[in-house]
Amino acid sequence: MRNITEIVNINEPDKVIRLLTARKKPFKTSLEEIEAQYDPKQHKIFDENYRPKKAIQVPTNKKDPQTGKTIYKTKKVERVRIAIPVQKSIVERAVGFLFGIPADYKITQNGVELKKTTDKQQTLFGAVKKVYHHNKMRYFDKKLARIVFRQREAAELWYMETNPDGTINRKGKMRVKLLAPVLGDRLYPHFNDYDNMDGFARRYKVYDEEGVSKEHFDVYTDRFVYQFINDSNGWKLQEGSPKMHGFTKIPIVYYRREQAKWEDVQSEIERAEDLTSNWGDTNDYFGVPKYFVKGKLNGFAEKGEQGAVFQGEKDTDMKMLSWDNSPVSVTGELANLFSMIYSYTHSADISFERMKEVGNNTSGAAIRLMFTDPHMDAQTETELFGEMFTRRSNIVANGICNTGIIESGIPMSVADETDFEPVFTPYMPKNEVEELELISKSVGGKQTTSRRRAIALNPINDDPALIEEEIKEEEAEALKQAQEAMGIGGTSNGVEE
Known about the structure:
- The protein is α+β, with helices and mostly antiparallel strands.
- 40% of the residues lie in helices and 21% in strands.
- It has 15 helices and 18 strands.
- The strands form six sheets. Strands 7, 8, 9, 10, 11 and 12 form a six-stranded antiparallel β-sheet that branches. A three-stranded antiparallel β-sheet has the order 4-3-16.
- β8 and β9 (213-220) form a beta hairpin.
- α5 (119-134) crosses α11.
- The radius of gyration is 35 Å and the shape is flat.
- The model is unreliable at 491-497 (pLDDT under 50).
């Protein structure tokens, strides 16, 4: 198998692109089908081949000349179609549990957290965190996870701001760009014989001011970026390419999972939509009173008339049509379906109705048990994100040491010998009152936090420092008034003491 260097050095752009795109492992479900499942407007319930219109017989103004009976014709009427955006709900809740509390980082060496670090290590760590702050990674991570859970793959491209002549601007910033199919990118990681990524390719289109597009194909190695463009004469290597990108690692972090977050329960979701839509059809027929009249009815009551009497000719019979079978079986199956959907996707059922059932007096232990499944699922997802976030930090640290951008004077050996590993804290709701009571009991009711900390944690205090000063002033004023009342340090009968 050819390595990435051998491929990009082939002097035939068409062959380079063919070799780099041919070996990508396909997904079991196509991207188009996954996107149709994610978008409620594209659900199967709206497909008339899957759920055809209802055929009914309606009378015409014509009569059969032989029998004299009214002639009926077939009419297609629309059916109730209710799409349920469960897929989006599953994805959003997974993102919330994983990154509701932003990921943090720690300095490690050979997998062990360093309690004592050198000045160079601490300086590099500070520079890495500065890069993350500039790129607003706490929000970027949520966008990234949302796309990975939805489209199963995404990548982040790290690059440095450049000068007009194309050289790296060492006074500039290090930036990150999110790559994903939903953003117009086709991603092609390249792996060597040992299944290690030795290159990465990205295919995309660039549009000019008039909306005319040109197709691009960029290839990243550990040192260079090769940029190909497809113009009127076919694919060619752009002028000035390849260029050094400033890293000594491939500046790409590639994320991939084999299934969308909801894929295992797609059939249950479709069944729930079918049941809900069928129920809607039934309500359209039986939700308002309908009458069956045998014979001739001479008059009908007015709307809202009390004590109404209906009169008909002899042998006239009038009955109200009703649905004798209760929908209990439907509601039971729907409840069972949603239970399976949330259970097998490890999602929390935190709908408004469900939370009303739980109430606000649930113990902390019960809350933890209720959210064990989504909490464990978030921990499982760190298997992918933990590895990739570590790679992310290694790339950023490598770029800082290699170019001196952000922070100069840090040897490459510091980046090579140090890792900045992520620390994930999956979201877990708490009963804080119960926790505080337990802490208070454990110390015999003694104070366990400072007044300043308590003031800062009070949600109605918009300016804790100002509130603290006001409290001190009020306490001083109260003390002064008490002293005056006792005749201490003040005046008595107008005579100074």
